[in-house]
Amino acid sequence: MTPLQKALALLAGLASLATLFVPYAVVQGQPVPAWYFSPVAALAVVTIGILLTFRNALRPAYCWAVALCAAIILLGTLSRIDKAGPGFWLVLVSGWLMAWLFAERLAGAIRSKKVGGRAFGFLIPLTLGAAILVIWEAVTRGGGVPTVLLPPPSSIWARITASLPLLAADFQQTFLKAVLIGYALGCGAGFLVAIAIDRSPFLKRGLLPLGSFVSALPMVGIAPIMVMWFGFDWPSKAAVVIIMTFFPMLVNTVAGLNASGSMERDMMRTYAAGYWQTLFKLRLPAAAPFIFNGLKINSTLALIGAIVAEFFGTPIVGMGFRISTEVGKMNVDMVWAEIAMAALAGSLFYGIVTLVERGVTFWHPSVRGG
Questions:
Q1: Strand, helix or coil at 122?
Q2: At the topology level of CATH, where does 160-368 sit?
Q3: Which of 3, 48, 96, 346 keeps 20 to 30 A from 257, CA to CA?
């Protein structure tokens, strides 16, 4: 075990042990000790057992089981307590430390090839993501945080399930129309202009500074102008997305076209290859990692641009419209539902681009080594 892993295990054990000596929560106006909730004591015993058997017990599966036990205790007692006490927060700390220790131990097992990275690597982000949600739920409900400031994940999920038709309409308006169309046009324009710049030194001196100028334009100033030019529907939002995605694609493509070595280009000239043959057979394949880097950057920029553009005028549908109106009504759970949907859509979009990249650039060391 590394010193960090030993420290995590020690702190988790001490936090669990301390729950036996401080009030866990307040129930009907009375402080309740930890042994009132028997699973808390069980968690302490299990963690203490871990500390006594470092070598064998602190395996990733055991750490994950302890973290899961802490999550069950926290979520299972939320509806039974009036106010969280010190023991509640100690269990929360202990569970988070054990989830962290699980990630450390599993990452070490993957590095030493004791387990397959492709088969078990997804468990690390999945566990830590679940731990963040448990902490969020425990802090907001156990700490009595007003829902206006931060609603718990359970309230956000209830709002999502109750508003699926409305969320679907917003998703269609913002993502399927403004984002995808603007993304395709902006990235396509950036790619074609990069080819033109590479072909002509005159355009390189003229268009690159112009492209950087366009990228520096403030979006909050451009969005109202696009609304006046193209109307309140999705074309004005797609125009904002085009402006936002054009320059990253242009810069990455230009850098990628210069990535091929002079020796390879000299060899193509030796075989009497023209500019277009060299471009399609050598330079574009070498530029593929740079091009996909621009596509991945734009996959998130496009969604951000479309949502912000909807703040400045839109029909009564769309993610940005819903966020701005529901904030005014103090329906914060609906705002977070829209944010969750946008985050999920953006992550899936980024993941799809990454999968396409792995299929196209399978020969690249970054993919072969992954």
A1: coil
A2: MetI-like fold (1.10.3720)
A3: 346
